[in-house]
């Protein structure tokens, strides 16, 4: 991404798109019962409250009444239908992991099978986006968590901690290509959740080879444990390598969420918050998803940056758009064109 001399002036920045993830699949309800939805009514109310606070993208997981993360697509369909009524302007983004929480004591924390995740392309009503991981990798979500982060929560139990410590993301090349194909066929935009520059490079190759043609919405997921950590050097290198035409959101975990969101807001990028990312404002003091959204809105106002409403967020994300060719996609995203047969030297758009 290119920063002009005036890039930090809020009046030339896009309006801020706030993603909220208020369903916290890694937590058990008693970890923060007042903010972790259990019933379907609570799921819907969480979305309404976050939207009214200023969030315009809803990252969706679903919990069963026994407190476990749901792996039933029928539950996702039920929630999506109710959300379309309750928050019609909100961008509905289904988490591609479905639920990675362990199902019982001593169970693995793992994503569902390739075939099960492909079924997210068949949800009805369809979401606006499904998040997609690139390249199978470790996803040890507890590596950066401190003793304060897990004290008094279910993650402090040794068997749960170990389950998350050993978790990985299955996202091999064959699955990725097929999943992108199915999402496009059903008019669902992929939102790429990327842990590092090697994954960003793989996305570029997918585009250059025609496996994806459309707007490029990215989230840099800086949670450590096989992903980048929330180090400003990592962050700026990823930003530098992101093409000019992409829309970039920054995501991290626990008490790194607020400083990273503050930097994203100041730099003209976009933010993510919610109890899936953190439940703490400071050691021992919890913060709800709505309070986190309100916090980001306050920071944006202090910086003079406007917050997008739902319709504006849809325009920024280019929901519903696709491109018709590799060349068009490369040009719109700001990547150099592919080399033509016999062409020498560097390639560039005229």
UniProtKB/TrEMBL annotation:
Keywords: Metal-binding, Transferase, Zinc. The keyword Lyase does not apply. InterPro entries: Aldolase_TIM, BKACE. GO terms for molecular function: 3-keto-5-aminohexanoate cleavage activity; metal ion binding. Its cofactor is Zn(2+). The keyword Metal-binding applies. PANTHER family: 3-KETO-5-AMINOHEXANOATE CLEAVAGE ENZYME (PTHR37418:SF2), 3-KETO-5-AMINOHEXANOATE CLEAVAGE ENZYME-RELATED (PTHR37418). This is Transposase. It comes from Intrasporangium oryzae NRRL B-24470.
């Amino acid at each position: 991404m290119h920063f002009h001399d005036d890039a930090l002036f809020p009046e030339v920045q896009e309006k801020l798109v706030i993603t909220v993830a208020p369903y916290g699949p890694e937590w058990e309800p008693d970890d923060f019962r007042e903010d972790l939805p259990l019933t379907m009514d609570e799921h819907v109310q969480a979305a309404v409250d976050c939207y009214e606070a200023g969030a315009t993208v809803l990252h969706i997981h679903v919990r069963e009444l026994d407190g476990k993360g749901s792996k039933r697509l029928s539950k996702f369909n039920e929630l999506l239908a109710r959300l379309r009524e309750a928050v019609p302007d909100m961008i509905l983004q289904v988490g591609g992991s479905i639920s990675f929480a362990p199902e019982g004591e001593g169970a693995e924390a793992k994503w569902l099978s390739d075939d099960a995740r492909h079924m997210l392309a068949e949800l009805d009503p369809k979401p606006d986006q499904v998040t997609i991981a690139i390249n199978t990798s470790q996803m040890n979500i507890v590596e950066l968590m401190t003793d304060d982060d897990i004290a008094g929560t279910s993650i402090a139990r040794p068997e749960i901690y170990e389950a998350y410590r050993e978790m990985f993301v299955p996202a091999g090349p064959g699955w990725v290509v097929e999943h992108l194909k199915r999402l496009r066929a059903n008019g669902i935009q992929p939102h790429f959740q990327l842990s590092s520059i090697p994954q960003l490079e793989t996305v570029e190759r997918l585009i250059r080879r025609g496996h994806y043609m459309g707007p490029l919405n990215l989230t840099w997921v800086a949670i450590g444990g096989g992903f980048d950590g929330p180090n400003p050097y990592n962050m700026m290198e990823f930003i530098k390598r992101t093409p000019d035409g992409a829309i970039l959101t920054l995501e991290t975990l626990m008490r790194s969420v607020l400083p990273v969101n503050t930097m994203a807001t100041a730099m003209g990028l976009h933010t993510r918050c919610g109890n899936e990312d953190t439940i703490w404002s400071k050691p021992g003091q919890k913060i709800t998803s709505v309070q986190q959204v309100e916090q980001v809105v306050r920071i944006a106002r202090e910086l003079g940056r406007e917050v997008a409403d739902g319709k504006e967020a849809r325009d920024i994300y280019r929901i519903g758009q696709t491109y018709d060719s590799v060349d068009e996609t490369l040009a719109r995203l700001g990547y150099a064109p592919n080399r033509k047969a016999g062409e020498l030297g560097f390639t560039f758009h005229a």
